[in-house]
Amino acid sequence: MTETVSTRAKARGKGLKMERVFSTEGTHPYDAITWERRDVVQQNWKTGETVFEQRGVEFPDFWSVNASTIVTTKYFRGAVGTDAREWSLKQLIDRVVKTYTKAGIDHDYFATDADAEIFEHELTWLLVNQYFSFNSPVWFNVGTPSPQQVSACFILSVDDSMDSILNWYKEEGFIFKGGSGAGLNLSRIRSSKELLSSGGTASGPVSFMRGADASAGTIKSGGATRRAAKMVVLDVDHPDIEEFVMTKAKEEDKIRALRDAGFDMDLGGADITSVQYQNANNSVRVSDEFMRAVEDGTEFGLRSRGTGEVIETVDARDLFRKISEAAWACADPGLQYDDTINDWHTNPETGRITASNPCSEYMSLDNSSCNLASLNLLKFLKDDDTFDAALFAKAVEFIITAMDISICFADFPTEAIGQTTVDYRQLGIGYANLGALLMAMGLGYDSEGGRSMAAAITSLMTGTSYKRSAELAGIVGPYAGYARNADAHKRVMRKHQAANDVVRVLHTEDGRVHKLATKAWADVIKLGEKNGFRNAQASVLAPTGTIGFMMDCDTTGIEPDFSLVKFKKLVGGGSMQIVNQTIPRALKKMGYQEEQVEAIVAYIAEHGHVVDAPGLKTEHYEIFDTAMGARALKPMGHVRMMAAAQPFLSGAISKTVNLPESATVEEIEDVYLQSWKLGLKATAIYRDNCKVGQPLSDGGGKAKKDAADKAAGSVEPVETKVVEKVVYAPVRKRLPKSRVSRTTSFTVGGAEGYMTSGAHDDGQLGEVFLKLGKQGSTLAGVMDAFSIAVSIGLQYGVPLETYVSKFTNLRFEPAGLTDDPDVRMSQSIMDYIFRRLALDYLSFEERSQLGIYSAEERQRHLETGSYEPLVEETGSASELREAAAPLVEQGDEGARVETKVDVETKDTHGSEAREVPAHVTTGEAKTTAELFEKLTGTAVDSPLCMTCGTKMRPAGSCYVCEGCGSTSGCS
């Protein structure tokens, strides 16, 4: 077939004319950036064992340590320690891009050799500058001696025969071995309530799921890259549907019983393999008929697999309730909405869509595959905070072209999958960093403005993809299955266009994007009518786990931000905690001044959320809502965002609707019902802490031993001991009769006052007197009492920094501007007083831990990227100001204070990284998920990484490890 297409293209003498958009003529993309060498050493945090080491690898200087670590460990090919091992990002990108370019030339995609060169340079530029990434199998396999598998997602099929069932096991095993995942629908297999031709009773699909689950648990896909990922689907009218629904919920009860008996039931634990069905995501395929029966409270028929006759009726609401109860108990099953899926199907004449890949974003024909690529949306946000829709569309054109070319040379795990993929050429372009983009633009994730922006971008992406697909069809021909499905394909294109026409734009930015999307869909209809289409499918929204780290994305796929505070690895070793860099960008866009931004960011660094952040308006809280924490998004916020994007996707969306632990079964029923009504193709839910088989922060040997002792009924002998009680009492350190004091006059929000502070001989603050209001007034009396209380506390040893941390950021009137150049804005008189005391009596190191800096230090930060003073010793702000001047005048090059950690001065987007107060350091945290737990005291219910032992975090319907990039999914 490929040779026929190539011959046709040559006969036409046609080919793509490529326009240089990103790269510069005469300059190779590599020569336009600065490169540096790094050492990549990876350890298992649980054992301390070094699991990977490669020194002197080469990456652009703006790539984060995490990105370079994950690419080195996951994608560089060749044995470590040999000359065959890749050591530079240039080698990796060249290996892939040159393979794509050669295939494009061989199959007549380009009009001239010059167009091929432009394609190569543009694709290289986009990859090296982190504008997009192909899915992992491309990086694993393309350009290597291995089979050129480029697809991450597969859909298999199984029929009602033992040969087919055993073949299912075999095909899944090979797919897992290659580092990918697969899904299939088991509904063709006869139920346990039907007879075999021999007269016996059939085993039913659930029994065969056990064998497939054991196989998946044995095979670590891609070596030790990730655990096997799989999806199992059963139609709601299958007679064994109730047994299927309850499989994992019953196993969860078993896990609890075994855990309480002292067995190691953590995910990856020694004893977890004794339970079944843990390696697959389960989904029920529901029809509109069933959902209407749920609404109406009527009965629903379960049908024989052989004859299609109703062999049993059930109460639809009762079955729907059981589905929701099981999901409440263990997060499975999810729902897939069969009629909605097939209403948007471009190839119904070939066959129905019956299943999905493991993460639910790819939905197409049985025995098919999809290769994915995702764009980094934040890269298209310009300095003026407008989204560059035209540039985004140009990037989509290049990427879709490359993705289609890959099918020309790709290998596939089975002959059937290869034939279907070549005949239908399904692609899965998508994006990451939507949550970060919306935040940076000042748009709430759960807001009409956020949803309209997401809808417009998704519409532009898919419209541009199908436009390029129609252009490619005019050059190298439509996909082989197009002729028989032409009317259906064009009907779906009109449905996309109609959905685009009803998008309600709310502001200038989404209006600009939507205008381009409207033009793209008009071109799709026009060109498609003339040329047909090269690809049966174009777009999905995948989890973007590992490749999200490769692009240094703050958020994955369509997800909101996981946490406002991030864990960042540093060049030269070590790590630091930073506040998400989109936060200051968003605050500045909304009109907050530098001092206000600093105060809000410092508050977020300490608390992990924005509630009661100083100076932040409550109406702006929603912009900083996250997946978890104090301002966690409501479940329907997730559903509504998916509903905004779904009409503009060929496939579906990998995303989990998060619910709090307190969520009820009724709330899960509502999520499932509303998802159907809003037109989603699939919905998965996760209720916090619903699964037992997750690692507990202190679930070590002692916890298990205690549980075992309790189960065995053992009782510790009681021993009576005489304990001598020792009481430790603080000693008051009184001030000397004659002491140095300082009087400060101040104005806060127009209110005037005076503060007198006295110090011990060693310079430590010992007393404070405040004068506000007239003598004898209530306010004056309260201030006198407060002054005495604070002074006595100081003399009894309460550290000043404790008072500062407690009383700064208190918000009440009077508040506002002050006459103090070091504290320009204050949330209250108390906020001002203790900031001033910190500046007068605490050293720079102590103040930096509290996020309090003088005007001079803030200015120095803007100029040099560091707050550090140009002196060797530390002291209060006033002492440092006096000491710095003569040293600077002398030109003492060695006068700068050395930072205690090797801190990167640039974040992943090239802007200045913000150091956060050391009093909220990460401790034993190794990832953002662990850091989130330490800051908020809230558990992140996710597994430990099987490779490096750190806690993973949610990404779509899967989990991803920030430490090494491993995922529990298929992309």
UniProtKB/TrEMBL annotation:
> Which InterPro entries has this protein been placed in?
RdRp_reductase_class-2, RNR_2_N, RNR_lg_C, RNR_NrdJ/NrdZ, TSCPD_dom
E.C. number, please? 1.17.4.1
Residues forming the Ribonucleotide reductase large subunit C-terminal domain are 151-686
Q: Which family does it belong to?
A: Belongs to the ribonucleoside diphosphate reductase class-2 family.
Relate the protein's function as given in its record: Catalyzes the reduction of ribonucleotides to deoxyribonucleotides. May function to provide a pool of deoxyribonucleotide precursors for DNA repair during oxygen limitation and/or for immediate growth after restoration of oxygen.
**Alphabetically ordered keywords of this record:** Cobalamin, Cobalt, Disulfide bond, DNA synthesis, Nucleotide-binding, Oxidoreductase
Q: Which residues form the TSCPD domain?
A: 736-840
The alphabetized list of GO BP terms reads: DNA biosynthetic process
**UniProt domain Ribonucleotide reductase class II vitamin B12-dependent N-terminal: residue ranges:** 40-130
Q: Which cofactor does it need?
A: adenosylcob(III)alamin
UniProt-recorded Gene Ontology molecular function terms: cobalamin binding; cobalt ion binding; nucleotide binding; ribonucleoside-diphosphate reductase activity, thioredoxin disulfide as acceptor
- What is the name of this protein? Vitamin B12-dependent ribonucleotide reductase
Instruction: Give the reaction(s) catalysed.
Output: a 2'-deoxyribonucleoside 5'-diphosphate + [thioredoxin]-disulfide + H2O = a ribonucleoside 5'-diphosphate + [thioredoxin]-dithiol
